[in-house]
Amino acid sequence: MSIRNPNRQGLLPDGKRAPEIQGSWRRCIEEYKLEPGRDLRAPRLSESEIRYARDQLDSLLHSAEPVFDRLRYLGGNSGYCVLVTDASGIVLRDYIDSSRGRELADKGLSLGTVWSENLVGTNGLGTCLATGEALTVYADEHFGRELQRFTCSTAPLIAPDGDVIGALDISTYARGDKVGQGLALNLVCDTADQIEASMFRHAFARHHLLALVSSPVADPALSSALLAVNDAGWILGATSPALLLLGIAERALIVGQGLAALTGANLEDVHRAPVALPSAAGWLMRLAGHLPARNPVAASPAPTPRKPLDSPLYRVAGGDSRLQRNADICHRVMDRNISILLQGETGTGKEVWARAIHDSSARRDKPFVTLNCAAIPESLIESELFGYGAGTFTGGLKGGKTGKIEASNGGTLFLDEIGDMPLALQARLLRVLAEREITPLGQIKPVPVDLHVICATHRDLASIVEQGGFREDLYYRISGVRVALPALRERQDLHALIDLVLAGLPDGEAGEIDAQARRVLAEYHWPGNIRQLKNVLEFALCMSDGASIRLTDLPDEVFPPAPGERSAHTPSETSPMPPDRLVSLGARAPDSDERQRILSALQQHRWVVVRAAEALGISRSTLHRKIRKYGLADS
């Protein structure tokens, strides 16, 4: 995604085509097979189609209404026609109250028309959406004859996550030359920046917002160059103007970075006073008046910590910036009947996340019903999902059975491992999602349901769709929002999560982990993710004979294999007995000379524990425990 920058357009003298215009004409001829110079009228949608599309766009743009109020004034008093489209090029807002604007609307620049480049050829809206660039299409630069009397200056509308969600266009009759349209292009870019900043402030309202400004006395509230930062100092997002000022071409290069690494200033510094940025990029300031109650700037050097958020989603997200961003997204959509697809490795907490979405939503007082599509035989999953009437099955419940869908009416249905749902059943589920009613097996009369579905899978559904194992239409129906849950080894808050899981275990609340054991846990790759972490900590608590978990209390699986040693995941078939740790639980060592054998092995291998353990035929963790047991550390 390119960054808006009207100066890059190179408004050229007559007789020359800017590169973006040349590229568009080439696409029109070679890809779209359009004929230049013909009338290419924009098609118009029906009222119901317009209404549906506008509802989708308004849910994103509602925070920018003050900016649109100014556009309404511009369109009504300047002779311009102001249009706003969604990402498909459908005009969903128009501000054309003046007589000239009405005349332009009569020519086709009106609500509900579709201006995608492949339908209408080179035009401001369609070409802007095709390239992601702000641009002016002037007079005969338009591909179709119908538009060649107009000049259109357009800029993309960019969501807080960097996606282009639409375009903003200012059109009028072409007069003079293209150079004279520079003011219109600057105006449309500036307005698009303001809209993006409004959406950005709303999306990251629960985080620290910082503004890039030209001087330390500037008003940060007027800046569209914004950064969002979490409590730990990780950058969660940036607006297009901020990327432009910092000289960064892609959001992926900044999101997830530490603020201090990027700017040379930490969050505490910025909260105290404006900070000069390197490379003359300006100054970084806290957005005035933002979060005064949650993060007041104290007179002491450090700001007062923010109170933890009440939402179950934010509590589950912890201190990981990606999960916090996921929580922001889910909060935006969870009460809008948009299906959510959770994707992540086994054990990453998909059901916990789904429950947190439910508990954070307006449906929290209604049922949360789960169905694991991989855990139920194919012959039973249909009756589990849809239920059945009385007498439908021999041996079935006498009065029939309520299915999971009907049981979740008004609440949330969580379909885990949706990728394992049989193809025949996928068609029925698709129909239920579309019609919002079910017909139990053996019944005729449909039952209406108020349904919100959250699905989860550890598989790559897109690949399964390509292979024909999952319906494409159902995939897009259940993936209105896709949320990727990071693996445990990728989480930025791993240490805090270890403590949180430990505190949630029986007798774990007062437990501690010493530095060596914590380092091993942090370096382990955790193929089983949070589920495996819980099992490891439960084992360590059982093994611990003191107030803290030590290195010798951890199971063998978390230690990397020594050179020549088999991994814990590929045990040798010739092992004569279970690991020594297990046979010695509560038992006396069978060899009364064990202390001396261990001491001799340690001395022989110069106290290199890995080699001594290998010579003794026991694990390193077992050897560490025996060293402590026999007091050999002081020998």
UniProtKB/TrEMBL annotation:
Region feature (Disordered): 555-586
InterPro entries named in the record: AAA+_ATPase, AAA_lid_NorR, GAF, GAF-like_dom_sf, Homeodomain-like_sf, HTH_Fis, P-loop_NTPase, Sigma_54_int
GO MF, one annotated term: sequence-specific DNA binding
Domain Sigma-54 factor interaction: 316-542
UniProt cross-references to Pfam families, sorted A to Z: AAA_lid_14 (PF25601), GAF (PF01590), HTH_8 (PF02954), Sigma54_activat (PF00158)
SUPFAM superfamilies: Homeodomain-like, P-loop containing nucleoside triphosphate hydrolases
Keywords of this entry: ATP-binding, DNA-binding, Nucleotide-binding, Transcription, Transcription regulation
One of the GO BP terms on file: regulation of DNA-templated transcription
PANTHER family for the chain: TRANSCRIPTIONAL REGULATORY PROTEIN
Full protein name: Transcriptional regulator AcoR
Organism lineage string: Bacteria, Pseudomonadati, Pseudomonadota, Gammaproteobacteria, Oceanospirillales
Name of the encoding gene: acoR
